[in-house]
């Protein structure tokens, strides 16, 4: 295999973005020949410029318009085009490419993910919040253009790798590490600091997803993502705590077979699978799984008392309509407030639950029939969360 693959990386300076560029730059014999179309970032202009020059990207885009001048001067003479602003990110995502890596965090990534799909580019999807908020709409768009949604989230990527007969699936089983507070008491969790909550035992990730892992809202968002991506109802998706993060997820078939994908917890494996799909590519530098060395794999059910976020996600996805958008928006605001030490750790799931309840019991639920409805609901959820957090302050 030595095909040429044009790739764009949205969120190139983040954890997923950096792992993606590592794969792109690995150049092992037998790997595809990658050429970089677009790289984007929010404010991290130096890292963006450095990556764009190194990978000889066509264009580098910074979301923060005030950094345009600096980006331009950093790229001067390199041949890399500079651009700034959210519309420029959308434009970059719609440049033709074999695969666009959606690595922006939060619903902020939705417009660019949508633009890539509308162009007919395959999307390697890390930005789970896009799928949570607009899964059915994005799938519909992908059907229209023929774009493939290739999951990068390790759990969904694992399922994607072993899902050969979707019509025979009994259950999807998402594994969860349990995060840094897997064995913590409620009072320890109540006093948790942002530093403790972002110290994930197995994965090195951005701050927002790390906090989501600590509350297990991440597993809730993943459950919604899985329901939409694989078209499986919530009550046929189980969550299993597996602290070693070696089994990345499982699919249970109606003949009693359970297929799983295993590997070391390293995002470069699922990323490489999405970038080289439908083939595989070699990653010679990666640590190999040694089960004898690991010795023991453990499993347990999640504790709904200490991790109520998972139940909220189940409620949201079974209610359907705009409920997942509301849960996601409330969670994004609450996580940001926690990271600024403005609220306690347990308040995150508490306020997200309150806003979800208000939505579900309030006015008749609005079904988002288009992307404008999604953004409108997201704004409503954010506003209600801010108001509730102010009340609580
Ligand atoms: P990071 O916070 O590390 O990186 C986020 C990236 O998005 C950065 O490049 C950042 O730019 C950019 N960005 C942030 N906000 C905006 C915005 N408003 N507009 C445009 N660009 C923006 O996050 P992760 O890489 O950890 O996560 C990215 C996504 O992937 C999330 O949805 C997460 O849930 C998902 N994911 C992550 C995994 C991981 O291992 N990290 C695993 C599975 C899924 P800048 O650097 O300039 O701030």
Task: Describe the model.
The chain has 393 residues and is an alpha/beta fold. The chain folds into 2 domains: 4-152, NAD(P)-binding Rossmann-like Domain (Rossmann fold, 3-Layer(aba) Sandwich); 157-261 and 300-392, Orthogonal Bundle (Rna Polymerase Sigma Factor, Chain: A), CATH 1.10.1740. It has helices at 15-24, 45-55, 68-75, 86-93, 110-119, 128-145, 154-162, 186-190, 194-197, 207-215, 217-230, 268-276, 291-294, 309-319, 323-339, 345-361, 371-392, and strands spanning 4-10, 33-41, 59-62, 81-84, 99-102, 122-125, 149-151, 169-176, 237-241, 247-253, 258-262. Bound molecules: NADPH dihydro-nicotinamide-adenine-dinucleotide phosphate. NADPH dihydro-nicotinamide-adenine-dinucleotide phosphate binds at residues 11-17, 41-44, 63, 89, 103-105, 108, 126-129, 153, 203, 205-206, 209, 267.
Topology summary:
Layout lengths: L3 E7 L4 H10 L8 E9 L3 H11 L3 E4 L5 H8 L5 E4 L1 H8 L5 E4 L7 H10 L2 E4 L2 H18 L3 E3 L2 H9 L6 E8 L9 H5 L3 H4 L9 H9 L1 H14 L6 E5 L5 E7 L4 E5 L5 H9 L14 H4 L14 H11 L3 H17 L5 H17 L9 H22 L1
Helix pairs in contact: 2-3, 4-5, 5-6, 6-11, 6-15, 10-15, 11-14, 14-15, 14-16, 15-16, 15-17, 16-17
Bound molecules: NADPH dihydro-nicotinamide-adenine-dinucleotide phosphate.
């Amino acid at each position: 295999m030595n095909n040429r693959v044009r790739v764009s990386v949205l969120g190139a300076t983040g954890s997923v973005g950096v792992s993606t560029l590592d794969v792109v730059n690995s150049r092992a014999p037998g790997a595809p020949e990658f050429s970089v179309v677009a790289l984007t970032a929010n404010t991290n202009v130096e890292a963006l410029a450095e990556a764009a020059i190194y990978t000889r990207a066509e264009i580098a885009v910074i979301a923060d318009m005030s950094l345009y001048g600096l980006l331009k001067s950093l790229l001067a003479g390199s041949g890399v085009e500079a651009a700034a602003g959210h519309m420029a990110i959308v434009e970059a995502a719609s440049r033709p490419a074999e695969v666009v890596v959606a690595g922006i965090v939060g619903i902020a990534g939705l417009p660019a993910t949508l633009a890539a799909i509308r162009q007919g580019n395959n999307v390697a999807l890390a930005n789970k919040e896009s799928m949570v908020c607009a899964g059915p709409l994005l799938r519909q768009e992908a059907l229209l253009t023929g774009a493939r949604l290739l999951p990068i989230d390790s759990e969904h990527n694992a399922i994607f790798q072993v899902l050969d007969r979707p019509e025979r699936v009994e259950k999807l089983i998402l594994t969860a590490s349990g995060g840094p507070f897997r064995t913590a008491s409620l009072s320890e969790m109540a006093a948790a600091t942002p530093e403790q909550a972002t110290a994930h035992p197995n994965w090195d990730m951005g701050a927002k997803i790390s906090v989501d892992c600590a509350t297990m809202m991440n597993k809730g968002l993943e459950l919604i993502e899985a329901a939409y991506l694989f078209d499986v109802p919530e009550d046929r998706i189980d969550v299993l705590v597996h602290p070693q993060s070696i089994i990345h997820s499982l699919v249970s078939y109606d003949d009693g077979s359970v297929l799983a994908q295993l590997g070391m917890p390293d995002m470069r494996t699922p990323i490489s699978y999405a970038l080289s799909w439908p083939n595989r590519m070699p990653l010679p530098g990666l640590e190999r799984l040694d089960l004898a060395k690991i010795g023991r794999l453990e499993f347990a059910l999640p504790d709904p008392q200490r991790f109520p976020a998972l139940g909220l996600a189940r409620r949201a996805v079974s209610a359907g309509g705009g409920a997942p958008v509301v849960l996601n928006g409330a969670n994004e605001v609450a996580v940001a407030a926690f990271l600024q030490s403005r609220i306690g750790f347990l308040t995150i799931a508490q306020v997200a639950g309150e806003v979800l309840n208000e939505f579900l019991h309030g006015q008749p639920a609005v079904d988002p029939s288009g992307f404008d409805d999604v953004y409108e609901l997201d704004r409503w959820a954010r506003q209600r969360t801010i108001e509730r957090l102010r009340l609580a302050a």
